[in-house]
Amino acid sequence: MVEQLPKVLISEEEIAGRIAELGAQITEDFKGKNLLMVSVLKGSVVFMSDLMRAINLPLRIDFMSVSSYGSGVKTSGVVKILQDLDHPIEGYDLLIVEDILDSGVTLGYLTGILRSRNPNSIKLVTLLDKPERRQVEVETDYVGFTIPDEFVVGYGLDFDEQYRNLPYVGVLNAI
Length: 175
Ligand code: IMP
Ligand code: MG
Fold this sequence. Notes:
By secondary structure, this protein is of the alpha/beta class. Helix content is 22%, strand content 30%. The protein is built from three helices and nine strands. It has helices at residues 12-29, 45-53, 105-115, and strands at residues 7-10, 35-41, 60-68, 79-83, 93-101, 121-129, 142-146, 152-153, 169-171. A six-stranded mixed sheet has the order 4-3-2-5-6-7. It has a three-stranded antiparallel sheet with strand order 1-9-8. Strand 2, helix 2 and strand 3 form a beta-alpha-beta unit. The longest helix is centred in the N-terminal third of the chain and has 18 residues, at 12-29. Inosinic acid binds next to strand 5, helix 3 and strand 8.
């Protein structure tokens, strides 16, 4: 049987257009700053690689990997650092890059940890925002798209580590 492709929610073209806008805005906002983009692995790598090329400024990048304890759709509220940044962040203006803001648990925890390391400033960009599912208030500075409470895959986002390579954001039919 041929595997069914996820239904398109946000097309490749729409994503590219929005990233161009976000890149232009971020370029304005970070002029004269010491920009360090922090990508939260693995979901944000595709967004990160497109967004960084839409920003017309000198910048550095780093990666961090976190996971919430427990599995499935319910987040437990406890987050573990699996891979930390390579360098201290004092003196940098951070832009945290996330794929999706869902319950807010991951980003709430992450911004707390990073803030305690005394960077100049912290801003947050997420490609997708699912506000209906929020448990922890997180202030976002830039949002690509606000989406309804549906499980999405593609453009970095996975279901069971699959679909990250889809060029668009789609909805799986049979979850
Ligand atoms: P939060 O801590 O609940 O905000 O969860 C954020 C993380 O959950 C994201 O970085 C994703 O890895 C994952 N996630 C949340 N919603 C979705 C979805 O619709 N599709 C794929 N992954 C998701
Ligand atoms: Mg994931």
